[in-house]
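Weekly sync, protein design subgroup
Attendees: M.S., D.O., the rotation student, P.L. (late)

Item 1: inverse folding check
M.S. brought a backbone from last month's batch and wanted to see whether the design step gives back something sensible before we order anything. D.O. pointed out we never logged the input encoding, so this time it goes straight into the notes. Structure tokens as presented (327 positions):
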């Protein structure tokens, strides 16, 4: 009789431990997502750049059947709102205060990791054969590699689920083990109901126009420059509704930087463009193979170079964003 009791206890212990092994937990998490028709996620995104921290409120909607996305990102320091929408018409980066949207011919979001998309987080776990798993303090923790081709300094992430398999935290690290981005997940609702126009671009146009400036009183310069590169020319040009400053930097890593007053369109305007959305420090910009453009501090910026790679463009842009966002 004692032997039977001991065997039963051992079986219960084995079953209990098995529930928290990587295999069982991963199956449960995948099953929950696979059974859903999509999700709605709410959270707070934190982006770190040296001593500067940027905080966003993030809301994500995903309709799995139609493969539609809507991501709303609001900068908590200045209420600057941007949206990424993917529907049957394409991929759009929409800035309500400027009354304009960029339209991309892009494979977004499938060409790289996305910190605020639940489905890409699941795929990162699935696709990393060398991932690590730990169960600690009633939390399921995964460590996986990431794929950010436009920012190769981002190398890995920590993904945390609570004891009930609810996603709670994603932290993305650079090559020096510093947390560059972190999403604290408040809630994930599976299989929500979306209205028929929820993912329509026109249905999300609720314009609150930003104040328009006509001149640039203080030019914002990059804090970081590649070694041996310097400013050799600066031109001010009047445009129809404001001012533009064109800066030429020469050296081994030469580039052109344009800074201009923001254009606020009278009518809602969609602008076709190449590239894809790219998350900078305090804003979402447009990244191509040799250029990066964005809006920050009520100004538009554009940097282009034939000799610099994307990482170098991002490093210069981030050194401008940190200054311009304070204006």
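Designed sequence read out in the meeting:
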């Amino acid at each position: 009789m004692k032997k039977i009791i001991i065997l039963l206890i051992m079986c219960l212990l084995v079953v209990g431990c098995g529930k928290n092994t990587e295999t069982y937990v991963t199956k449960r998490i995948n099953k929950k997502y696979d059974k859903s028709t999509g999700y709605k996620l709410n959270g707070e995104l934190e982006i770190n750049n040296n001593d500067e921290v940027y905080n966003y409120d993030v809301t994500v909607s995903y309709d799995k059947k139609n493969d539609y996305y809507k991501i709303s990102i609001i900068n908590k320091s200045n209420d600057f709102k941007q949206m990424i929408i993917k529907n049957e018409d394409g991929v759009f980066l929409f800035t309500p205060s400027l009354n304009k949207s960029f339209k991309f011919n892009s494979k977004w979001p499938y060409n790289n990791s996305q910190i605020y998309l639940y489905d890409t987080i699941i795929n990162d776990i699935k696709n990393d054969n060398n991932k690590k798993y730990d169960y600690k303090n009633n939390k399921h923790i995964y460590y996986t590699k990431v794929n950010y081709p436009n920012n190769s300094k981002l190398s890995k992430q920590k993904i945390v689920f609570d004891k009930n398999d609810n996603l709670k935290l994603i932290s993305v690290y650079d090559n020096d083990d510093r947390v560059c981005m972190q999403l604290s997940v408040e809630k994930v609702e599976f299989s929500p109901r979306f209205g028929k126009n929820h993912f329509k671009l026109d249905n999300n146009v609720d314009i609150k126009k930003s104040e328009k400036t006509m001149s640039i009183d203080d030019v914002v310069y990059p804090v970081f420059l590649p070694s041996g590169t310097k400013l050799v020319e600066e031109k001010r040009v009047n445009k129809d509704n404001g001012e533009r400053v064109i800066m030429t930097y020469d050296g081994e890593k030469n580039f052109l930087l344009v800074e201009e007053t923001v254009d606020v369109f009278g009518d809602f305007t969609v602008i076709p463009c190449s590239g894809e959305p790219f998350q900078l420090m305090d804003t979402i910009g447009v990244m191509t193979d040799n250029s990066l453009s964005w809006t920050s501090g009520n100004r538009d910026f554009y940097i282009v170079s034939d000799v610099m790679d994307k990482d170098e463009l991002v490093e210069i842009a981030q050194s401008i964003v940190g200054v311009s966002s304070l204006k």
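Discussion: The first strand starts at residue 38 and ends at 49. The chain has four helices and 19 strands.
Action: P.L. to compare against the previous round before Friday.
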